[in-house]
Amino acid sequence: MPVLHRVVYGSYDKTYSRHTAQDIDIDEWLSANCRHSYYHSPSYLREKAVEFECDEDAVLFALRWV
Asked: Which of 3, 15, 45, 52 is most buried (most C-beta within 10 Å)?
């Protein structure tokens, strides 16, 4: 069982829309730069976060987006 590293980068507005311009940019960055699996937080939570299986991917994401 991998240890997940959670990085919070924002919060949902009242519409709970996932596809803001920033979210699309983040999705593109994740697919281009992550070597290991990652998971988006569900939209029913108030905060936007990504959980990473690799600590290096988590650190690079945090440096870029937080």
From this structure: 52
pTM over 0.70: yes
Please indicate whether residue 51 or residue 11 has the higher confidence score (pLDDT).
51
Expressed as residue numbers, the domain containing 32 is 5-65
- How distant, in Å, are the alpha carbons of 15, 43, 45, 54 from that of 66? 22, 19, 18, 17
pLDDT tier for residue 17 given thresholds of 50, 70 and 90: low
Query: How many domains does the chain divide into?
Result: 1
